[in-house]
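Justification of computing resources. Each target in the renewal requires a structure prediction run like the one illustrated here; the chain below, 294 residues long, is used simply to show the kind of job we budget for.
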Amino acid sequence: MRFSQALIPTLKETPRDAEVISHQLMMRAGLIRKVASGIYTLLPMGVRVIRKFEAIVREEMNRSGAQEVIMPMVVPASLWQQSGRWTKYGPELLRFKDRHDNDFLLGPTHEEVITDLVTQSVKSYKQLPINLYQIQSKFRDEIRPRFGLMRGREFGMKDAYSFHSTWESLDQTYEDMRQAYERIFSRCGLGFRMVQADSGAIGGSVSAEFMVLADTGEDAVITCIHCQFAANVEAAACTANDTTTPDRAPGPSRCCHSNPWQKTVSKSLNFKYHDSKAVMKTMIYLADNAPIAA
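Resulting structure tokens:
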């Protein structure tokens, strides 16, 4: 198609609600247009960009042995009631009734649907392991959508779900997914770190996130410059020290706080604290590949 015939409605001025550079450039370049708060139309150039990303994701997921499915965006409430998340998920879950007065929701994630599918389809442990993924629209009724596509209410998502008969099989798939994600981000030319994360409402004993390092965003990451330790500040844990020792009387309780980008005691005082006696610098050491705070 000729450029003169293409729908590329560029803008000379930056929209007032475009706060971050990515949102500004996508609007001005004619990639997206706002329909409602947190909801956007992808224009032809935006679709081309998204399709290129999707192609990379599909190639690497298929390379890892995963199989693609497409699950419905509209999900019956009965599946979520069975898991208990119908009432626990919170106001981000958009609930509605159909004409027959049956409860439904717009899927923000698809653990319930995929579990129901595997329950019906997999009849023997010999069919395991199996890893199923999809690239599909999700809806989460965010209380404050912002930053364009970074925190929208409707968004495209690749989600994968694996099922196993042994812990060893689960560990192997976890490693396969880690390698696949690293290849995806590397092929996209993004600087990233895999960090420890909070499992949240989904649960689980171990969770990791791949964070793209950028000046914009809402999450802060704690990293060590001498080792591979990295964690989201929400998941970074500290161990409370015993305040009573044989040669010391009981003292005030101690705890750790996230103190992002405040590199000196004086800046820390302005940032959170009021008394220099309440501030202690922490050194990170690496012993047997495990980070230790002292």
